[in-house]
Specification:
Length: 244
């Protein structure tokens, strides 16, 4: 009988405690625990261990989230789908960087640099016409924009822009892709300079020298031995010859 009364007493105390806690939750304006609204309110809780202060120290000592622990179902969700969705932002950042690098590369590739124009008349030279034709016909449509190096003055920029526009109409006609001016610092070296460096490199290559290994000179009898074999006679050992 006493055990039964003790059990009822514990049950009554737990109910009172639960009711008191629920009353505090309702007074705080929060949804009833373990309801759909309550789980939605807790959905933004960060995962992982919480940092607490105990005995004058922070546990753990490195930065961690604070506040209430996640619910069981939210912990299970994070463990099941980890690292999603926390990698989405990092992946989006890397993709944006790659797209920006690709766009910058195509901008350089579709630019008519200073060496594509005649330095006196600012008209397109042969190389410039060939490069413009490639831009208008073979470059990807998404990056099909002809950029013109505007030079050092407004007059030079206008002459180059007019020359490129006129040449583009003659090549393809109809509606032209955008033709824009831009400040440009050409990358690389002129072809004449590269050819001169290559010629200097070829001239600096030393002549090849081949060495033949023979037997020792002279001697009576069967002669000496050779590093490549025995029994050969005559000849000069280690004499260099120049290939013709």
């Amino acid at each position: 009988m006493s055990n039964t009364l003790l059990g009822w007493k514990r049950l009554l105390m737990s109910c009172v405690g639960t009711a008191s806690m629920m009353g505090g939750v309702l007074l705080a304006g929060e949804p009833y625990p373990h309801t759909e609204e309550w789980y939605q309110m807790r959905a933004g809780d960060p995962p992982g261990q919480r940092q607490v202060e105990k005995k004058g120290k922070l546990w753990p000592p490195f930065p961690r989230p604070v506040g209430r622990e996640q619910t069981f179902w939210h912990k299970y969700h994070h463990a099941h789908y980890w690292p999603h969705p926390y990698v989405c932002e990092d992946r989006a950042y890397i993709q944006n960087v790659v797209h920006q690098q690709s766009a910058n590369g195509w901008t350089v590739a579709t630019t008519l640099h200073d060496y594509h124009f005649n330095p006196e008349t600012n008209a397109l030279n042969t190389a410039g016409e060939a490069h413009l034709y490639w831009i208008l016909t073979e470059s990807p449509v998404a990056y099909r924009t002809a950029y013109v190096a505007q030079g050092r003055s407004a007059e030079q920029a206008n002459l180059r822009l007019a020359s490129v526009t006129s040449a583009a109409r003659e090549m393809v006609g109809g509606e032209l892709p955008p033709i824009l001016l831009r400040h440009d610092q050409p990358l690389g070296r002129p072809a004449v300079e590269i050819d001169r460096l290559r010629q200097m490199e070829l001239q600096a290559i030393p002549r090849q020298r081949l060495f033949t290994i023979g037997t020792s000179s002279g001697g009576s009898g069967g002669g000496g031995s050779s590093p490549l074999g025995s029994g050969s006679s005559g000849g000069t050992s280690g004499s260099p010859t120049t290939s013709q």
